[in-house]
Amino acid sequence: MSTPHTWLVFWRTLAFALVVLGSLSLSTTTALAQADPEREISTAVPAVDADVWRQVKSGETGANYRDSRFDSNYNLINASGETWRQIRNRWVSPFGMIAIGAMLAMIVLFYLIVGRKHLDEPRSGRKLLRWTILERSLHWSVATLFIVLALSGLNLLYGKFVFRPLFGDAIWASMMSGTKVLHNYIGPVFGILLVIILAKFLVRNLPKKHDWAWFKQGGGLIGKGRHPDADFANAGEKVWYWLLATAGLAVVVSGFVLDFPNYGQDRDAMQWANIIHAIGALGLTAVALGHIYIGTLGTEGSLEGMATGYVDETWAKEHHNLWYEKAKDQAVDVNDPGQPSLGNEPTSPQRSS
């Protein structure tokens, strides 16, 4: 691993740790403030007496009647909220767990039956620059935030069924408070970086005619013969890109609606934003498991490209042959002392997008 890459990983890890510690510190302060009896009493809703109930029943609203919902004309019992609860608990949560569990089972089964995709030919020792430092930094930043958001979101949705019985109400409540603060604070950062990375990689992920052949061959798993044609991004990578550009942006927009409830959205808008956010996030998490598997354990040579920026010439030929034909003249022989160090790649390499 090159020295610049080592320092990049170090500073990214340090920054992430500071964000986590800051979020946990804030959540602890909030929890202590909520536990202060005097503060709780000062902000408590006045007692509901018989007069208030008569006002509610008659539809009147007086000085003693409180409704914290924005622009609300609901009765005391909110049928819309119950509909949202039923959709979330009976449909979204169970099927989200089924989707993620099914994807994990498919990955394990695929690995046991097919195994890792090794290179068909020996490595050449010649390297091609595939990802610049900026591109790798964007990728790992978005990927790290995605994983943290996915884990914290799963904890918010399913954590009460796992951790509450194990640790009890007090620990579980503190855990959920910290999880919620972490999720809410890093969500907007993820949204901004996602828009940047989608804009940067748009041209590389535009559909081409040869993408259909890639799908018909299952990315090279179906049939015999040479690997299907692929440019800088293959058809599978383009599908992941457009999922992020559609479902991912839907998750980001709905997350902003939930994160900033002071811009005019009413209770119904918040409830539907929550449903959209959960469906999109659970679906992306399931697909992301496949993306992570293919880019790490599933395919030889893929992870080192995003880790170092360079890929072996053999890997480029087999997986992205159309891109290789355009970039092969820029290959660097790692065994030649006269060649520049791989750790000092140019910031704007002359390569096809």
Q: What would you note in describing this structure?
A:
With 353 residues, this protein is an all-alpha fold. It has a single domain, classed as Transmembrane di-heme cytochromes, Chain C (Fumarate Reductase Cytochrome B subunit), CATH 1.20.950. It is 67% helix and 3% strand. It contains twelve helices and three strands, in the order H-H-H-H-E-H-H-H-H-H-H-E-H-H-E. The chain has helices at residues 3-35, 37-42, 50-58, 79-113, 133-167, 169-200, 210-216, 235-259, 267-298, 302-308, 313-319, 321-327; strands spanning 126-129, 310-312, 332-333. It has a three-stranded antiparallel sheet. Helix 1 packs across helix 6 (169-200) and helix 5 packs antiparallel against helix 6 (169-200). 19% of the residues are buried.
Keywords, separated by commas or semicolons:
mainly alpha, three-stranded antiparallel β-sheet, Cytochrome b561 bacterial/Ni-hydrogenase domain-containing protein, electron transfer activity, 12 helices, transmembrane, heme
Mean pLDDT: 81
Shape: elongated
CATH homologous superfamily placement: Transmembrane di-heme cytochromes, Chain C
Class inferred from helices and paired strands: mainly alpha
Instruction: Strand order, main sheet: write it out.
Output: 2-1-3
Question: Percentage of helical residues?
Answer: 55-70%
CATH topology group:
Fumarate Reductase Cytochrome B subunit
Tally of distinct domains: 1
CATH class: Mainly Alpha
Task: Please state the oligomeric state of the protein chains shown.
Answer: single chain
Query: How is the main sheet built?
Result: 3 strands, antiparallel
Low-confidence stretches: 27-35, 39-45, 346-353
> How much of the polypeptide forms β-strand, as a percent range?
under 5%
